[in-house]
Design goal:
The protein is mainly alpha-helical. About 75% of the residues lie in helices and about 0% in strands. The termini are far apart. The model has no long low-confidence stretch (mean pLDDT about 80).
């Protein structure tokens, strides 16, 4: 009996220690719930902000999975009386959610056809065996691909390519330590840079587009987004390569033997088959659909048409899509959009925006600088500690209520949320390369702070010199 009591007490103390963030969240939510609402904020807006605080604490503490946080958001919206069950369901399911779901399914189909190996061979043929050229190829290809099919998918496709080159160079980790960091960060940061290029580059891009449409502030087409954002992507690629090369300059300046081994391994799989060619054609068709038909059909429906074609042509089985699609990401984006819409409808976003502008007004008088600071710097900092989708979901409605050009604010916020260079948890790509065991947490800051400053500077120049020419 004594042994049982001791075991129970040990397990209880372990649970309390591990779940202290969950307990802290519960206590904070109770305190906030019973604090009187500010006179300028509606009770519904007050309760919506409580949900925001709860979600942020749980995301930072990482005490429960992110999909569980998303489900909790939907539950609390009903329990707190912010909206009806049907209203919450309607705010959860939208074309933006269809788009995320379809994009993830398309990525699964592409990987299942083995196109990642073909990609590796294609990069090597373009770059040759010099290390700096391979780094340039990794950054450029990661950036361009992630602008269309999502950064975490590209990182997962590119990681085996980099690890193959590292292993083929030497089995001794000490010898290839710097080379490994250079190649892996080329993938992670290339994907982050590329994710700004199109709406399909990241879920938070779609979230912001959805906010603008739902709030009646205008519309941004797929092609419009490319016109604004892609030049910045192309400018950042060579600068990022230079920063990474200076920071992680390797001893191996030529990867001759590694490249030779990779070519042999890829050649064993034979020529590209009919299914792989068909998979490429379907995706190209989906891309052109996004560019030219999205104003009429919506991004989500076009993505689902692509999934339908992959299934109909037998390019992938449904069981493979069902097994490999990250359904938790879909739930998270849906809940994030729902919470953002509730912030708008209850006046919580407008209240926070006015408070933020008042606080900034005490420091800087220029309203344009105030908006830029909140939409860029604050977003860039938060995205390194929260998921970029969570950052945009929380700040998006607030920023759009600050006045000014909603399209510009939408773009600056989405782009700044891609400046996820500083921490392991900053983005899925950062976590993916960390899973290799070849990079440490302090490695992220070595090049990350330089890329962060560079990205902010480029965004400032592009938004003030190039974007006015498009309007």
């Amino acid at each position: 009996m004594l042994g049982f009591s001791h075991s129970f007490l040990s397990n209880f103390l372990f649970w309390v220690t591990r779940k202290r963030w969950l307990i802290f969240t519960f206590v904070i939510s109770l305190l906030l719930f019973y604090i009187p609402s500010p006179t300028t904020l509606t009770p519904e807006g007050h309760r919506t902000l409580i949900i925001v605080v709860i979600a942020l604490i749980l995301i930072i503490g990482e005490v429960i999975p992110l999909p569980a946080v998303a489900i909790l958001i939907l539950i609390l919206e009903v329990i707190f009386g912010i909206d009806t069950p049907n209203g919450v369901a309607a705010s959860f399911m939208s074309d933006a959610v269809f788009f995320i779901m379809g994009s993830l399914m398309l990525a699964v189909a592409i990987v299942s056809q083995g196109l990642d190996k073909r990609l590796a061979l294609g990069i090597i043929r373009m770059t040759g065996n010099r290390t700096w050229r391979i780094v340039f190829g990794f950054v450029a290809v990661s950036a361009i691909l992630s602008s269309f099919i999502g950064e975490h998918t590209v990182a997962a496709m590119m990681l085996p390519v980099a690890l193959t080159l590292v292993r083929n160079t030497s089995e001794d980790k000490a010898i290839v330590h710097t080379l490994a960091k250079l190649l892996l960060f080329s993938i992670a940061y290339g994907c982050a840079i590329g994710s700004i290029g199109t709406p399909s580059g990241g879920g938070r891009n779609v979230i912001m587009i959805g906010y603008i449409s739902e709030f009646g502030l205008g519309n941004i087409s797929y092609l419009d987004w490319i016109k604004y954002a892609y030049p910045m992507l192309l400018i950042e690629i060579p600068i990022a390569v230079l920063i990474l090369w200076v920071t992680f300059r390797p001893e191996q300046t030529i990867l001759d033997s590694a490249v030779r081994k990779l070519k042999v391994n890829v050649a064993k799989s034979g020529k590209m088959n009919g299914n792989q060619i068909m998979a490429i054609f379907v995706f190209v068709g989906v891309f052109f659909g996004w560019v030219f038909l999205s104003p009429y059909l919506g991004l989500g429906i076009i993505a689902l048409i692509g999934v339908f074609l992959y299934l109909s042509f037998g390019l992938i089985e449904w069981k493979d899509i069902n097994r490999n699609t990250n359904w938790g990401v879909i739930i998270l984006f849906g809940a994030a959009i729902s919470l953002g819409m509730q912030m708008k409808e209850t006046g919580a976003a407008e209240w926070v925006a006015s408070q933020a502008l008042t606080g900034m007004g005490n420091i800087v008088e220029d309203i344009g600088i105030q908006r830029w600071f909140i939409s860029v710097f604050l977003t860039g900092i938060l995205t390194n500690f929260l998921s970029n989708a969570a950052t945009v979901a929380v700040l998006g409605p607030i920023i759009l209520d600050m006045g000014g050009n909603p399209v510009i604010l939408c773009l600056t916020t989405s782009i700044a949320s891609a400046f996820a260079y500083l921490t392991i948890v900053a983005s899925p790509t950062c976590m993916i390369i960390h899973s290799s065991g070849l990079v440490k947490s302090n490695d992220y800051l070595k090049a990350g702070w330089k890329l962060f400053i560079m990205s902010m500077a480029v965004l400032f120049l592009v938004s003030y010199l190039y974007w006015p020419l498009l309007s």
